[in-house]
Every structure is written in structure tokens, then in C-alpha cells.
Amino acid sequence: MKSLKFHIILWTINYLFHCVGHFTGSPTKIYIVSLLIILYNVLVKTIVFYITLYCIIPLYLEKKQISKFILLMIFNIGGVAFVSVLMNNFLPVAEGDKSVDLTFIENYVANLIDILGVFPFVFVFWYVNRIVTQERIKIQIEQENHYLEQSIIETQLYNLKNQINPDFLFRKLNYFYHESLPYSPNLSKGISLLTDMMHYAIDDDDDNLKVSLQKEIKHIQNFVEINQLRFNGRLQVEFDIVGVEKRHEIMPLILITFVENALKYGELFDKNNPLKIRLKVEDNNLFFTTFNLTRRGPKEDSEGIGIDNTQKRLSLGYVDNYSLDIKHEPEFYEVALYIKLE
Q1: CA 47, CA 115: separation in Å to the nearest integer?
Q2: C-alpha span between 33 and 95 (Å, rounded)
Q3: Where do the TM regions start and end (predicted)?
Q4: N or C, which terminus of the chain has less Cβ within 10 Å?
Q5: End-to-end Cα spacing for the chain
């Protein structure tokens, strides 16, 4: 519909331009006959324009059939000009119109030259339209690829979640929690933390593929705390949070990956050099960093979804609205993540 309006406006302007040129360039007064003759001449050009644009160019020029293209162009121009001259004999004569004094050949040549003036506009319009169409197709393909990759990841996550019966799992964890209460506060606390973490990891409430940032932070805190239980509270971790509000949302299990890697590679028992986790939200911009010294001895095995997977999820979920810089040096391990939150 927008394209139709554009073409109507284009040819209306063309018609008005011809009217102004005709009546300002000659002493002819403005008569209805003159306006109709000008309209007829514009319609002739319109016919040539659209036959060339939508039939001859797509069928022959775009398919590299140059000889057929040239022959059809000659037939198109010559034939329309010939019919136009014949039709002029049946049209009324406007006052001051000197075309009646021309011979058939002179009239034919005049019409031919007039029609030829259409072709620069045809090819410019075709070329611009071709570029716009190619760009539109490119964008559509990129969007389809994006949705396809997103669907694959969603399917993978869905399949992973369905490998576990959540009700069965949480009933058992709840049973173990109550059974362990009289014997070991640390064990019962660990089971409670693990239950919360599992709830978060397989929760299906995030219909828009986003969760509350506060939930993601709580998940990180639970993860750090359950590791503290493993090492009797000896882990040196600083976790600073600034500017987080209830309305802030993020893709789930994004930040936890980097904390896992910090614990995997980090020297975590040095009071003077603790693992530093910083999370700040300012004007819907999230800044998340981790920094720790690199452990010299054996490393912890990570049970997370991995850095590569997280980077793919970031590129799909946030496209150009994020940046990630990871430095894994012999002396330290550092992550700097920026996300533009919606």
C-alpha cells in the first residue's frame, strides 16, 4: 500500500511538472483539452515505465539475456511511440498545438525522443529498488537465523529441564533437609541452598526468557555460600551490589558462569587478595566484574554451562547491547561484562 501511494504521488508530480512546463513555455491558455492531452502523454510514459520495470528487466536483463532484452526494449519503445502517433489523430487539437503541422515521421521521432526520456528514471528506480530489496532480504535472513538459533537454545534448555522430574527432585531434597536437621546444621543448610539453586535453574516462570536480576544475584549468593560450607567459611569473597531494583531483568544463569570460573581458577584463601565481585546498575546499564588472583595449584572442575555457551546466549539475547572482556593471565583472572538492560 505504501508503494502504491508512492507511485501515485510520483506520477502526479510528473503530470503537474509537465503542465507547468507546457503552459509557461508557450502562449497556450489553460484549456481542459490541453490538460487531457498532457495526461494522455504522461500515461503513455507510465505504460513504458512499468512494462520495462516489471516485465522486461526482471525477465531478461536480470537473467543475463541481453540480446532479447535489447530487442524487446526496441519493440517496447518503437511500438508504444507508433501507437501514440496513431492515437494522436483521434485526439482533439488544443489551441496553439503545432504538432498537427508535423509529418507522421516527424511526429513519430518527437514521440520517440519524449519516451526515451523515461529510461534513465526506470533504471535508477530499478537499481535503488534492487539494493533496498537485497538489504531487506539480508535483514530478514539475519532475523530468521537469530530466531532459529534462539529456538535451538530454548529447545536445548527445555530438553535439559525435562530430563529431571522437578517434583520428585524437590520432594527428595526436602526429605533430606528435614532428616539432616538434627544431625548437621551445615548439611541441612547446604541442602536448603542447593534446593533454592535447583529451583532457580529449572524454573519455567521466565516466559520472556528473562528473570529478575535480584533472583540472579540471590543465585550467585547461594552458590558462594554453598562453597563457603565446603571450605568451612575460609573463602575470601567480596560481593558489592549497587543500584539494583525490582524492575531490572536479565537472562538467567548468565552471571553465575563467571563466578564459577572465578572459583575454578582463583586463589580464594588470601585475605589480602579476595575474589572481588562487583555488580552495578546505572541508567539501565549493568556493569559486572570479577577479579581474582590465579591459583597456582589444582583447579576446581566447573559444573556450569560454560563460557562459550554464555557468550552465544549473550550474542543472541542482547545482540549489540553488550560487551564482554575476559583476561586470563598467569597472575590473575578478570571479567568485565556490560549489558544494556531493557
Answers
A1: 10
A2: 9
A3: 7-24, 30-57, 69-88, 108-128
A4: N
A5: 33
Amino acid at 62: E
Residues sharing a CB contact under 8 Å with residue 110, sequence separation 6 or more, in sequence order? 99, 102
pLDDT for the residue 32: 66
Distance CA 169, CA 191 (A): 12
Per-residue model confidence (pLDDT) at position 1: 46
Taking the domains of the chain in order of start, what are their residue ranges? 2-117, 205-340
Count CA atoms within 13 Å of residue 186 on its CB side: 9
Compute the distance between CA of residue 167 and CA of residue 161 in angstroms, rounded to an integer.
12
Q: What gap in Å lies between CA 159 and CA 169, rounded to an integer?
A: 16
Reported as a pLDDT band with limits 50, 70 and 90, residue 27 is low
Nearest residue to 317 via CA among 204, 161, 209: 209
Q: Which residue is listed with cell 525435562?
A: 162
Inform me whether the pLDDT recorded for 277 exceeds 90. Answer: yes
Residue 312 has pLDDT above 60, yes or no: yes
Please give the C-alpha separations between residue 275 and each of 197, 257, 278, 333, in angstroms, as whole numbers: 21, 15, 10, 10
* Sheet arrangement for strand 237-242: 237-242, 275-282, 285-293, 332-340, 322-328
How do the residues of the chain divide into helix, strand and coil, expressed in percent and rounded to 5? Answer: 60, 15, 25
Highest-pLDDT range among 50-64, 187-201, 291-305: 50-64
Average pLDDT for the chain: 76
* Residue 260, Cβ density class (10 Å: 0-12 exposed, 13-18 middle, ≥19 buried): buried
The number of beta carbons lying within 10 Å of the beta carbon of residue 12 is 11
Q: Determine contact, residues 56/73, Cβ cutoff 8 Å.
A: yes
